Amino acid sequence: MQGHRFTKFVPTQSNEGANFDKLFKIFQQLLTITSGDVNEALQWLNNLDKQYQLTDDNYGMGDFIEDLKRKGYIEENEQDGRLVMTAKTEISIRRSALEEIFGKLKRHKGGNHHTNYAGMGEETSTDMRDYQFGDPLENISLTESIRNAQINHGIGDFMLLENDLEIRETEFKAQTSTVLMIDISHSMILYGEDRITPAKKVAMALAELITTRYPKDTLDILVFGNDAWQIQIKDLPYLQVGPYHTNTIAGLELAMDLLRRRKNQNKQIFMITDGKPTCMKVGIKYYKNSFGLDRKILRKTLTLAVQCRKLKIPITTFMIASDSYLQEFVREFTEANHGKAYYSNLRDLGSFIFEDFERNRRKRV
Fold first, then answer.
1. Where are the domains of the chain?
2. For the whole model, what pTM was predicted?
3. pLDDT tens digits for 178-200?
4. Domain 175-361 has CATH 3.90.79.20
């Protein structure tokens, strides 16, 4: 009897699957640029296919669209028949943004952030201390406790008392509440530079990072133009720039209100902007001035920065414009808050935000 013969398993390569994955990566990028407009994204993808021959006779754009429907990434709107994204696509875009921006991060056990302090946590350290009432039993070091009992009471008449017990310390893990402010004023698409798409990608990556790796943290996202309003994570791919001025004051007021409801001691604000504050609300009317820095608007903005400092809420400003007088405003704003500022280009925006996010996680207030 010959029996069973084992050979190395080599999975068959499916060109169809490879073609879909290649097109889907491009399609996700186009969805972010078009603010979730599936029909416009597909038109752009068709133009790219015509120019760069992304498909072939075996797998065409029609096959890709049918696969998108079959896999549950797009569906037809019942009212007008237009193609729209599904929740599955929204999640995949956030994951893609996370991999693109934070993909080189060291993976570790998620859920919390390590600090330099001992305290309540899940991972044990090498530090030992005496047992105190209320300590969890699973943290008792049996080896050290039995050794203490033998030293204190002798080997012949073994006893284990409370004073013999030693506890292995656990690492304190901080929790933080973060508010991400995104400028959606008209200047975010002026001068032929798309600044809103990188800002959206960073927001989606940060949202996915916090919800998957640090689930005990909180993240609130708001946008500000003439006014400020909170948006949900699922709304990020659809975010668009409007014909707005920059009401930084409204954004800061809403951010402070959101953080006031959070019970965590560690709180912080990230603000992505490319311009100066040009608008504020006085009663029911808008006070606007787009020509330089208005002293009335500036004073109110700096007052809020000082209020955040007194509440121990650091503001980190990510300035994605290089104008010298705008950077001077950011320096003055940062000094008033005792926060931080990064004069970032669009390519490095994500790495700066993660670096600051991680640093504040290690801070114990």
1. 15-85, 118-172, 175-361
2. 0.74
3. 999 999 999 888 777 788 998 89
4. no
